[in-house]
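Researcher: We plan to redesign the surface later, but first we want a full-length starting point. Tokens attached.
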């Protein structure tokens, strides 16, 4: 069954032949990701991240028996890969209490510099990593690789391998879901068993030891090691670093009656995260949940990385609970005004909003043309199209096996409610507070970078009063699947993608096919986002290609899309 096209009648002649196929241009190239990891005493490779103008965090781990004495590890940083022009060196200690991880904050570096680093344990050297500091002066461009959602069980990290091959990224921006918490019977378990990538440990992770072991598995992956050694990371977490659909006091995938205290599980997840990631530890007195920061790139842009999960987020609304109460139009209006739009529904919190306002003001005062937001969940308004004419009982049975709220979602899709209540759409008053700060600070180069959905998006951002705020670039996953990809739901996923695109004016481009990353190239006058995709994650040999390209400029006091490329005819019509 194909979903019927009922909107944008002028486009029907173009669209009736089916949904948009992926576009694979002449830049198609073939690669093979590495099959073997580093191994040995430095079995988890090296990494760097959280850069400043004169500093950056470097990371590694030594593989020692649990009952070993504290170990001394040497580190070196140089201006060249042969370590002839030495910049700094030192020694640090690691022990079982921090899972033998080694993290050093280098702070004698120059702005805008490229550096090489390595570790030594006894006579054994780690692999060499390359990193960069933030530029402080005038620059003519910056380039980033934007990624999200790297589920080990769903496939090989070919996307990481592809990014590692690039030599001129200033940083990799990872938008969260770096690890996943599920066991072999959970999300991705069936695929992992089929392709030989079972999650370790073979259980849902709840304890500190389990979170550490899961991080160790991800860092042992050879493509993960390659990308971390090649580029510094700017990182935020999403939900799966702790548990699915987490919020400040719980998570959808946590049952306190059978899995214990949420506070203890969250603490375990965060401790392992800070141990295993190249990020600065929290300042004294600052909560571990408060992982938000700003990164200024000379006179060009500021990246503000926000936290939308554990610090302030209110509990998500549940469609299964909502649907039975919406029997009349008055019920619907009351729900929207008194529940969905209630001012108490929070995402960022007052402390983070104040930080966001300061960073945007500083960016504008420096006359930086661009303000980038590293953001976890979809920000644009996306209303679910009416699916009732297109989904029968057999379809619902399939859907419910994948998602327990599917029936309620289909039944309520005629009511004009958001398609995803875990996204900013479930917190519209909080989103307006975010938009109000953008307006107040005159930040007219706003580009929001979003992960979480395992789907490609190019969206306009529009406030409730109709004010245009900026644009949103949504990246697909490194491996996780999309409900919008053509093969999903018995071949209906791409039809749902098309219907959603048609139904929502702010959605300019939407595709669930082909995992990949965003290659974001920013100059003072424009930004270019190339959606780079791979054709498989179930084999180490893969083809890479440009799936879509979008150009953005600052026009009429806002960032806006000014052009698109590598789109099919249908996609170009929908882009507008």
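Model: Full-length starting sequence:
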């Amino acid at each position: 069954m194909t979903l019927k096209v009922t909107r944008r009648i002028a486009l029907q002649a173009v669209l009736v032949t089916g949904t948009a196929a992926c576009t694979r241009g002449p830049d198609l190239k073939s690669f093979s990701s590495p099959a073997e990891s580093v191994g040995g005493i430095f079995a988890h490779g090296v990494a760097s991240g959280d850069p400043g103008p004169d500093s950056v965090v470097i990371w590694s781990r030594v593989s020692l028996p649990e009952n070993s004495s504290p170990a001394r590890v040497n580190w070196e940083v140089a201006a060249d890969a042969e370590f002839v022009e030495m910049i700094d060196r030192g020694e640090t200690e690691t022990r079982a209490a921090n899972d033998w991880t080694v993290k050093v904050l280098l702070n004698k570096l120059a702005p805008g510099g490229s550096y090489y680093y390595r570790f030594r344990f006894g006579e054994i050297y780690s692999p060499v990593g390359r990193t960069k500091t933030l530029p402080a002066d005038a620059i003519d461009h910056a380039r980033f690789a934007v990624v999200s959602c790297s589920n080990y069980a769903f496939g090989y990290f070919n996307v990481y391998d592809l990014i590692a091959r690039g030599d001129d990224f200033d940083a990799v921006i990872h938008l969260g879901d770096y690890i996943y918490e599920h066991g072999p019977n959970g999300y991705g378990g069936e695929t992992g068993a089929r392709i030989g990538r079972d999650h370790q440990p073979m259980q849902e992770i709840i304890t500190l030891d389990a979170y550490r072991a899961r991080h160790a598995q991800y860092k042992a992956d050879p493509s993960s090691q390659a990308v971390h050694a090649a580029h510094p990371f700017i990182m935020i977490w999403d939900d799966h670093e702790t548990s699915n659909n987490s919020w400040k006091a719980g998570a959808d995938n946590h049952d306190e009656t059978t899995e214990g205290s949420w506070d203890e599980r969250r603490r375990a997840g965060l401790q392992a995260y800070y141990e295993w990631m190249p990020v600065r530890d929290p300042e004294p007195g600052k909560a571990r949940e408060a992982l938000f920061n700003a990164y200024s790139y000379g006179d060009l842009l500021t990246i503000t990385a926000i936290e939308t999960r554990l610090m302030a987020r209110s509990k998500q609304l549940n469609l299964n609970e909502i649907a039975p109460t919406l029997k009349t139009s008055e019920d619907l209006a009351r729900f929207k005004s008194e529940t969905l739009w209630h001012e108490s529904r929070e995402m960022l919190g007052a402390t983070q909003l104040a930080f966001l306002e300061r960073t945007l003001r500083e960016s504008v005062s420096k006359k930086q043309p661009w303000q980038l937001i590293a953001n976890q969940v979809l920000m644009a308004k996306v209303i679910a199209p009416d699916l009732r004419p297109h989904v029968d009982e057999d379809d619902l049975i399939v859907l419910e096996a994948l998602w327990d709220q599917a029936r309620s979602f289909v039944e309520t899709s005629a009511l004009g409610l958001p398609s995803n209540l875990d996204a900013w759409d479930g917190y519209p008053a909080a989103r307006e507070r975010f938009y109000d700060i953008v307006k107040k600070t005159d930040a007219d180069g706003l580009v929001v970078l979003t992960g979480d959905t395992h789907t490609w998006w190019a969206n306009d951002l529009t406030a409730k009063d109709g004010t245009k705020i900026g644009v949103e670039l949504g990246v697909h996953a490194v491996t996780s699947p999309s409900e919008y990809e053509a093969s999903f739901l018995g071949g209906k996923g791409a039809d749902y993608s098309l219907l959603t695109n048609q139904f929502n004016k702010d959605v300019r481009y939407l595709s669930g096919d082909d995992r990949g990353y965003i290659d974001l190239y920013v100059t003072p006058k424009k930004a270019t986002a190339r959606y780079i995709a791979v054709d498989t994650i179930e084999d180490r040999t893969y083809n890479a290609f440009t799936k879509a390209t979008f150009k953005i400029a600052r026009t009429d006091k806002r960032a806006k899309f000014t052009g698109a490329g590598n789109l099919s005819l249908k996609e170009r019509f929908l882009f507008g």
